[in-house]
């Protein structure tokens, strides 16, 4: 049970980082 919760937390953190990276990439492309 704890392992599953830990996995979900890591998955959500990875998703947030992925979305943030995409936003930064879009801003970088937009500025050039």
Characteristics of this structure?
mainly alpha
Please provide a written account of the structure.
- It is a single chain.
- The protein is mainly alpha-helical and 32 residues long.
- It has one domain (1-32).
- 94% of the residues lie in helices and 0% in strands.
- It is built from one helix and no strands.
- It has one helix at residues 2-31.
- The longest helix is centred in the middle third of the chain and has 30 residues, at 2-31.
- The relative contact order is 0.11.
Q: Can you give me a brief rundown of this structure?
A:
With 32 residues, the protein is mainly alpha-helical.
Topology:
Blueprint: H1 2-31
Tell me the major beta sheet.
Answer: none
Number-wise, the strands total: 0
Quote the average pLDDT.
92
Task: Please state the overall shape, judged from the principal axes of the Cα atoms.
Answer: rod-shaped
> Rg to the nearest angstrom?
14 Å
Number of helices: 1
User: How many domain units?
Assistant: 1
Pick out the low-confidence regions: none
């Amino acid at each position: 049970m704890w392992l599953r919760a830990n996995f979900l937390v890591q998955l959500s953190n990875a998703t947030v980082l992925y979305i943030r990276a995409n936003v930064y990439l879009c801003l970088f492309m937009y500025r050039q």
